[in-house]
Inverse folding.
């Protein structure tokens, strides 16, 4: 009988420990990722990444991505654009963050840029200047 009592006490402790852990988890604050604001530096890096991605969306729209084309894949496009536009993109890694609305205008302008236009520099797109997208 003594063994049975010890087993019952052990099960009781396990039950209490499990309840305590559940209570801690229930009382822990949860973070809604939609409400988290990234740091200004993270926003700046994200702006540069978004610009490179938008340029590749434009290239895909202009049928420049795929076998036998200017860019062999989406990954190839992003990698090469980041290398070719390194200085432009670095300038748009805004240390104090970005103006979201202006960045959206920039990204839209890049994607909509005419396929016949050489898009060799971000400086050609007025909506994408550092002064436009970077916070002061």
């Amino acid at each position: 009988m003594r063994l049975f009592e010890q087993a019952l006490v052990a099960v009781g402790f396990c039950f209490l420990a499990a309840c305590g852990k559940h209570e801690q988890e229930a009382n822990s604050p949860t973070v809604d990722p939609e409400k988290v604001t990234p740091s200004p530096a993270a926003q700046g890096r994200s702006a540069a990444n978004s610009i490179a991605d938008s340029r590749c969306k434009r290239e895909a729209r202009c049928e420049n991505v795929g076998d036998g084309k200017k860019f062999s894949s989406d990954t190839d496009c992003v990698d090469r654009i980041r290398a070719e536009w390194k200085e432009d993109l670095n300038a748009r890694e805004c240390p104090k963050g970005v103006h979201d609305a202006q960045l959206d205008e920039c990204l839209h302008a890049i994607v909509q840029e005419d396929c016949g236009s050489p898009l060799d520099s971000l400086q050609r797109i007025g909506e994408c200047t550092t002064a436009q997208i970077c916070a002061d």
